[in-house]
């Protein structure tokens, strides 16, 4: 996961938490749900990037294993 992707997902998650908290404090259910949705979307982005990282790491290990032989 690139640094900019990590930062973007974290910012989106924090923004979602702020929306959710503001919505809860003001009784604005739409804003609260929107904040929850933003957090979920950020979580999915993080999960996808983590899978990409894991696949890249595994591919690198396989490549290195063949170089040793």
Shape: rod-shaped
Secondary-structure class: mainly alpha
- Please give the share of residues in helix: over 70%
The proportion of residues in beta strands is: under 5%
Count of individual helical segments:
2
- Alpha-carbon distance between the termini? 30 Å
- Please give the number of β-strands: 0
Helix-strand topology string: HH
Q: Give the uncertain stretches in residue-range form.
A: none
Largest sheet, described in full?
none
Q: Report the C-alpha radius of gyration, rounded.
A: 18 Å
Average pLDDT rating:
90
Oligomer: single chain
Structure description:
With 69 residues, the protein is mostly helical. Helix content is 93%, strand content 0%. The chain contains two helices and no strands. It has helices at 3-26, 29-68. It is rod-shaped, with a radius of gyration of 18 Å. The two termini are 30 Å apart. The mean pLDDT is 90.
Topology:
Elements: H1 3-26, H2 29-68
Helix pairs in contact: 1-2
Salient structural properties:
69 residues
Q: Quick summary of this structure?
A:
This protein is mostly helical. The chain has two helices and no strands.
């Amino acid at each position: 996961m690139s640094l900019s992707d990590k930062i973007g997902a974290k910012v989106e998650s924090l923004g979602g938490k702020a929306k959710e908290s503001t919505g809860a404090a003001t009784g604005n259910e739409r804003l609260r749900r929107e904040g929850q949705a933003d957090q979920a979307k950020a979580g999915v982005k993080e999960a996808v990037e983590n899978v990409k990282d894991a696949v890249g790491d595994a591919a690198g290990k396989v490549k290195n294993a063949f170089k040793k032989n």
